[in-house]
Amino acid sequence: MIECIPNISEGRDRDILRRAVDAVAVSGCGVLDLHADPDHNRSVLTFIGCESDLLDGVLALVRLTTAKIDLRAQRGVHPRMGATDVIPFVPLEGGTMSDCVQLARRVGQAIGEQLAIPVFLYEAAATSAQRRNLATIRKGQFERLTDKLHRAEWAPDFGPQTPHPTAGIVAIGARRFLVAFNVVLETGELAVATQIATRIREANGGLKGVKALGLPLASRGLVQVSMNLTDIDATNLLVAFERVRDEASDRGINVVESEIVGLVPRAAIGEATTESIRLDRDLESVVLENRLVRR
Q1: pLDDT surpasses 90 at 295
Q2: Residue 221 sits in the same domain as residue 166
């Protein structure tokens, strides 16, 4: 069994999101969750299946997003480079990282050949060291892709060397569990969230396995520290939350709530409870293993 967690650059149009879920489900995959964020204008879809079903499901999804999402008009606070921005595969029961790498390459080749969208492989599926980090591939976003792809070192792994005019490019990877975790602050000052994100990210000497950005939530007049926890053994939900809370407190600011994007493996919870991390919903409702049992 393999988990797939595509991120698509649409978080507002409910009809497109409904069609995305339907496209994947019709292909035989088991849809576990859909998380849509209007401020980010981005959605995360979580589904599982065998390799053949996942290949069909992802292709159906990318066909839909290519037809329905035009990045020339799309706006949101989250960085993006593609209509289907990123497609990670994660091994679950009976699956291996090698299985995910091979699937990422099969899917990438199919997308490049059938849909004429440039594909970059990242993390364990990467074909070079500079492409392992997703943020490096996404740097410059959709608006600067043409110049980037025409540099020899950024020729895509599959597909044309010119971005799709409306759908951009897509990154496809094989990786371990990653937890997308946001903490909302009781302030509208983006500089505060950015300062905290800078302090806590691993690249600046902060928490191990943490990538972080400060992002505005225009609909609420607040800001958030948006994190990816890439090493849940080193930094779990409670550790990440408490560090953000303490950094905010040092600046005289309270935490409003936290949010988990998609699902989270139980191993990432640690000692966290719904109350201790001020989660916006019941923590058990977003535990991956609970969804798998119900299936």
Answers
A1: no
A2: no
> Can you tell me the distance from the alpha carbon of 94 to that of 252, in angstroms, rounded to the nearest whole number?
48
One of 35, 40, 78, 164 is an active-site residue; which one? 78
Q: What residues make up the domain containing 95?
A: 2-174
Q: What is the pLDDT of residues 60-98, one digit of tens each?
A: 999 999 999 999 999 999 999 999 999 999 999 889 999
Examine the residue annotation and report whether 40 is marked as an active-site residue of this protein: no
Residue 93 has what pLDDT? 85
Cα angle 48, 283, 267; round to 5: 65
- Please state, in angstroms and rounded to a whole number, the distance separating the CA atoms of residues 182 and 200: 13
Distance separating alpha carbons of residues 159 and 205, to the nearest angstrom:
37
The neighbour count for residue 293, using CB atoms within 10 Å, is 8
- Under 8 Å between Cβ of 83 and 20: no
170 and 183 co-located in one domain: no
Whole-structure pTM value: 0.94
Shared-domain flag, residues 197 and 289: yes
Domain match, 134 and 23 both: yes
